[in-house]
Amino acid sequence: MGEQNKLDELNKVQSTKSRTKGGGARNKANYGKFKQDSTQYKACGYCGRKHKFGRELCPAWSETCNSCGKRNHFAKQCRQRRRDNTNQVKEADSSSDSEYIDSVTVKPDKISSISQQPSKEVYAKMIVRGNPIKFHVDCGATVNVLPMKYLAGENIEPTDRTLQMWNKPELKPKGTCRLTIRNPKNDKKYSVEFMAVQENLTPLLGAKAIQRMGIVETHNENFEQVAQVNSGIKDTTSTQSTTTVMNRIIEEFANVFEGEVGTLEGEQHLQVDPHL
Question: How far apart are CA 251 and CA 253, in angstroms?
Answer without folding.
Answer: 6
